[in-house]
Amino acid sequence: xxxxxxxIAKQWYKYSHKLECLCIVYLIRILSKNKGKIYWDSSxxxxxxxxxxxxxxxxEYASNAFSTVNGVYINSKGIYVSSNGVHINSGDIYLDTEDxxxxxxxxxxxxxxxxxxxxxxxxxxxxxxx
Length: 130
Hints:
Layout: H1 2-32, E1 37-39, E2 50-53, H2 59-62, E3 64-74, E4 79-82, E5 85-88, E6 93-97, E7 103-104, H3 110-127
Helix pairs in contact: 1-3
């Protein structure tokens, strides 16, 4: 049984890393087309997206398992230009949530990252971004 678990774990690690990379590339692509930021009013949409907020400096009382996301943006410090083009550090992609206006995507799970990308893709016309 352990061998079977290990085989599945290897596949999961491989595909989860690939999914994370694809999600980050998607976010970078749509953010670069939209001046580095996309914001929306969740009350104007038929559904909303939430992520788990860790509570920042006060996880004992400030954490929130369903923190509504109101936007996604690139911190301008994370953008640099080289001879190969524009590069963005994925650690500098942030969410604007109901609990924190600068919550790094590095703090959310892969499932939440994927859900965010799916939400944006499904609601791009309603939100109004390119």
